[in-house]
Each structure stands twice: as structure tokens, then as C-alpha cells.
Amino acid sequence: DTGVSQDPRHKITKRGQNVTFRCDPISEHNRLYWYRQTLGQGPEFLTYFQNEAQLEKSRLLSDRFSAERPKGSFSTLEIQRTEQGDSAMYLCASSFIAGGQTQYFGPGTRLLVL
Amino acid sequence: KNQVEQSPQSLIILEGKNCTLQCNYTVSPFSNLRWYKQDTGRGPVSLTIMTFSENTKSNGRYTATLDADTKQSSLHITASQLSDSASYICVVSFNAGNMLTFGGGTRLMVKP
To answer: How high is the pLDDT of residue B99?
Structure first.
């Protein structure tokens, strides 16, 4: 257990539905990252926050994806109008800017879009 | 384009044997290189981190090497155990460590 938690751990939804995932980082970490990982591949960067500011977004983050970190603590990742291609593991990681920037990963949320 | 390539894609070894995993990268500007272990269905866990000036770093039975000139790294696992069965991901950071590029991982299976 790295101290980063994600909820839910698994989500099955029908195509076209909206889903929202939550990440709770290690409490003193000011950076929070979202990644997507498909089977047999390494994680792909989606976006990251420093405190409440979203500093960078990948081109993978289409208009259907939105992430927030309103109070600089937990974060949510919402996918609207889900597609089958969105099926993946969504990983959250957090780091402390002055702590060697090692990213600590949560257990992930596995999404299956039917 | 920043890329991290790992080999082999998968590996099966017998318990107690040693193995070496390879990582080649083209990430620039290089900040540091990490090896992560990812058990099935779980998030990655950091094993080692090396900066430009470090050639080798050990963590128990795991020893990572880095050749910044050839942009290659290796992860050597000594006296493998069944619990070493996992994916091992090479991760190179750039942009002053803010951004990460992940390799596709090597899936290791240790058999009794």
C-alpha cells in the first residue's frame, strides 16, 4: 500500500454512459498525475496537477475527458460518453515536488466499457 | 519523440536463477531513470532511481545499471523468488523530472 487510494477499483459501464473516478493522494503531496494503461503496455500520461492547478494535459485527453483537483487534495477524472476504446486501467500517482519527485501509484481503477 | 524500449517483452525463469532486463531510451533532456515493479492488477511500485551521474544502484536483490552515454539501463534480479513474478517497467523522466515516459514493461514469470 503506497498511501494513494483510488475509487472505485473496478467499473463496468455501457457505451455512452459517463463515469467518474476518484483519487486520494498521499496527504502532503502537492503533485497528482493521471495515467491510462492498457493490457500489456506501460502507463500513458494523461494529465497532472500541482496543487489545484492543472499544468499539463496529454493529447490523449480528448474533450470527453476532464480532470479536477478543486482543493489541491483529491482529484476526479470524468469520462463522458464512454467508448469501448476507453476500456483500460486508470492509474493515479502523487509526488512531493521537493522529495526527489518519486511518484507513488495508487492501485488503479479498471474500466470496462461494454 | 521520447521513447523507452524494453526487452525482452516476457521472460520465464526458474526460481533461484538470475535474470537481466534491458531498457533503451531516447528521452531528452534526461532527468532520471526509474525501474518500477507492477504486480498484476496493482499500481507500479518504485524499485530504484538513478540520475545522470549514477552508474549502478541496488535495492536488495535488484541491481540497476545506467549508461547515460549509450542511453541504456538494465535491471538484474539475483536469486529470483516466486514473488518476483510481475511486470518490470523502465521509466525515464524529463522536463526537470516533472514528466515521465514509460516503457512497455517486461513481464517476468518465476516458476518453481
So the answer is: 76
